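Title: Prediction job returns without error message
Component: structure pipeline
Severity: low
Priority: P3
Assignee: unassigned

Description:
Job completed but the reporter wants confirmation the result is attached to the right record. Sequence as submitted:
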Amino acid sequence: MKKRSLHPGTWLFPLPVALVSCGNMNTYNIITISWTGTICSDPPMCYISVRPERYSHQLLMDNPEFVINLANAPLTFASDWCGVKSGRDVNKFKDLKLTPMKAETLNCPIILESPINIECKITEVKKLGSHDMFIAKVTNVQVSDNLFADGAVVPNLKNAELISYLKTVYLSQGEQLGRSGFSIKK
């Protein structure tokens, strides 16, 4: 197979689409983030990367916590809108008719309409270049009750309708191709 080299860049795709809420219960904002992920399982930790000139950056510095609200198909419009509008100019919760609800372990809001809310307390900020990485400990995860069918203890995430981002396109989740460990099962 012939390959072509390209200029170094960010080519890890697809990416999650997260509506990150930050600030406090008096002054808060939503920023759309795709540069987020897990960095440790014990203790559970994750990160978001934010440009210093973004409105949310100062909110994160002033109140070192945030919530990763995973976006689903019904939140696609809000995800795009929150990524192109600045919280300096608009109230994203109000304009999109989203519900800010106080997180269980933090003083910032979750987005009630998101199926999964990951509450995070910032432990470190790394200045990397175009973005600062906010490394955080996960303090709580909230999952919508409707993802637990018939008393299940594990949510059915396929029913969450989570979306991803591929360069410039929003995608819904595709069909299941396998389960962890399927390659070695007999």
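Comment from assignee: result matches the submitted record. The chain has a mean pLDDT of 94.
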